[in-house]
User: What shape does this take?
Amino acid sequence: MNRKLLALMLCGLFAASTAEAAPKKVWITLGDAAFLQLQKLAPATIAKESKALLANEGLIAAERVHLVEVDEQQLLGLSAAVHHELHRCGGFMFHSSEAAGRQALQAPVTLLATLRPSYVLDNQSVVNALLPQMQDSNIAQTIVDMSAFANRYYTTNNGVNASNWLKTRWQQMSAGRSDISVEQFSHAGWPQKSVILTIKGTDNASEVVVLGGHLDSINGQGTTENTRAPGADDDASGIASLSEALRVIVASGYKPRRTIKIMGYAAEEVGLRGSQEIAKSFKAANVNVVGVMQLDMTNYKGSDKDIYLYTDYTDNAQNQFVANLLTTYLPSVQIGYDKCGYACSDHASWSGQGYFASMPFESSFTQDNPYIHTANDTYANSGNQAQHALKFSKMALAFMVELGSDGPAGPGPVDKVENFSGKLALGQQQSYGPFKVAAGGRVSVVLAGTGDADLYLRKGSAPSTTVFDCKSDGPNSTENCALNISANADVYLLLNGYAAANYTLKVTYRAQ
Ligand code: BES
Ligand code: ZN
Assistant: This one.
């Protein structure tokens, strides 16, 4: 049955609320489009809070996001209306409490990974040797195997078994490599576990590259134990693309310098629940994730271009890096650009925590696979092929190797380091620079000390606390900020004493 013709087909929102003894109140955050539909149907629905989400370098999308409290009764009508009017499920994030929902509306404070990784392609011989080993037949097999579960819904035994199956499959694939481990990530609210494979970095293990897809599936009409929801494209295809990249990495003996983590998320279809818990736990543990790639639907070729990079809730600079990987390593692959709106897949869980994320997709947004969330999301309905998913698998491998091969950050041979220290009284400011940074280089600043000093950088002229190209203004004096410089530039630095502080400052930059 065609998903888009089924006006009253209910999506994950409703299914999630009825398949279990749901709490009376459900907190969700939604984008503009979905929220307007909710208001049309139930004018009484009010947003507790609405906000345009901001990231370090500007707006992350041109839409506002709303926090809404709905109860079960409302959800039925609301999700039907969203589906009827928008012809799709509205992307949404589920929150276990009002406080968690409000937190999701806050701009990610300081990006942990403000020190950008290098996006220079300097592993061409490795990548070019591995790409020809990748085979669509292996991807097809994983898709067929995962589709064989009646469903992979987050609350069913089938869904639990699918997670266990994936863990075993990845363990078998990496047997013999003591640097690779596979774990399940348990979630308190439901039985299906996420699966995380870790390839430990050789000498830069604290920096982590994350690639993921979701292992769960859903039938939009409601999913119980034996409901058919093969999810061949959504998202066995993403897991299969990642698995084939893993196979070739293991077969070649390639060992990354950074740690690589490959994730199969639980409970994506019911509000990005698995990936939100994982991304939040990584942030809370200060894990230095330098880049995230999400593969959700890679095998249905619905558009003329091959790979569409979604530009909302993703990182522009990292997306350019991904485009560069494609033009360099897969020159026949045609690149498109589109958007998928608020919370459409797990990359949003990572970008919501301030990490750099990308979401390469199988088609333009409106030409995606019409069978998803139905019993007909099968391998056959993706054309009995895995050639399309193979392109994503190759791209993922190039991403792993090019980001995975970099050593610990530190001054390069031509980088200049300048150290400063001082004291600030409350409200006092101190300026440094200009630092003359060379085209193609980078300036990164690390502040340490007591009290609460904040850090601002600006290209071309002096920053203020309101005008800057980069800032770091956390609640203490542990701050860092970095800028990539495309043309020779004078970079100015400002320290602001938000509270009195004693500080040391280290400025590393590619000198002109
Ligand atoms: N794979 C889809 C996302 C998707 C579908 C992207 C179609 C582009 C086109 C994902 O599994 C999904 O269904 N997302 C939901 C939101 C989710 C939080 C319930 C969506 O976007 O409607
Ligand atoms: Zn889906």
About this structure: Residues 1-20 have pLDDT under 50 and may be disordered. The two ends are 62 Å apart (CA to CA). The chain has three domains: 21-104, 113-404, 416-509. The CA atoms of residues 37 and 82 lie 6 Å apart.
